[in-house]
Amino acid sequence: MKLIIGNWCFSPRLFTSLLALVCTYLFISLGFWQLDRVKQKRNIFAEFEARQSAAAIDFNKVQNNELDKEALLWKRVKLTGAFLEQYQILLDNQVEDTRAGYFIYTPFVIDQSEKVVLVNRGWLLANADRKVTPKLVMTNGLIEINAVVKELPKTGLILKDMPPEQITETIYRVQRINIEELEKLTSIKLLPYVIRLEPESEHGYLRKWRLPGSGVNMHNGYAFQWFAFAIVLLIIYLVLNIKKIDKTGLKT
């Protein structure tokens, strides 16, 4: 293909044109994908704010037919009951300020019921020696806690040969929170979601909770980068394939 306009000749090769077209399409698609992620996260945060603005639900009064996860997700709840402190679940590979640690999960039995929910009590620094059990908070007796209902935490790829690690008789280090797996370990029937202890509640650890839908600026930045790559690629493509010709028709 050759196009001559005045003293300029545009004559790209077929291969370089196809390569530039594919890469430009890929970069633009990735940019719009990041913008779509921005939209999704803004919707998630708006839903989170709407649910957080509602009055806290007294979980002790919630009936079994009202325990639907989707209806309760991100809503504030208050519970009266007791931690089953003999069971401690340490979710491994949780980083806070570049320090390795755990999220500590403890079953919580709701007063005057058989309902038990797993509570994320916050982050705890791991010992350098992984054989040493970290110092855990033990709360006995009937207490009231404030929390937020949350879906099970998502984790990365888990190798099949990495089952829960038993640190003591009833303390386990796990790579993921799997309700069915934990029910087998503890012989306790658990609700199909977790609740996250609010920062103002006692009986927990470090709680710098990340808001749902956060990271909008990061995705905007990635979108800008992908669109910039597309523009730079187009400029390079044009510069390499547009040549000035003299009056004799030779490219200069």
In words, what does this structure look like?
- The protein has helices spanning 14-52, 69-72, 179-186, 216-241, and strands spanning 3-5, 8-10, 57-58, 76-83, 88-96, 99-110, 116-125, 143-150, 165-166, 171-174, 194-197, 242-244.
- The chain has 252 residues and is an alpha+beta fold.
- It folds into two domains: 3-43 and 215-244; 75-197, no CATH class.
- β6 (99-110) and β7 (116-125) form a beta hairpin.
Query: How many structural domains can be distinguished in the coordinates?
Result: 2
Give the CA-CA distance, first to last residue: 18 Å
Number of strands: 12
Radius of gyration: 28 Å
Main attributes of the structure:
252 residues, three-stranded antiparallel β-sheet, 12 strands, 2 domains, five-stranded mixed barrel, alpha+beta, 27% strand, single chain
In short:
This protein is an alpha+beta fold and 252 residues long.
Topology:
Elements: E1 3-5, E2 8-10, H1 14-52, E3 57-58, H2 69-72, E4 76-83, E5 88-96, E6 99-110, E7 116-125, E8 143-150, E9 165-166, E10 171-174, H3 179-186, E11 194-197, H4 216-241, E12 242-244
Parallel strand pairs: 3-4, 5-10, 7-11
Antiparallel strand pairs: 1-2, 2-12, 4-6, 4-8, 5-6, 6-7, 8-11, 9-10
Helix pairs in contact: 1-4
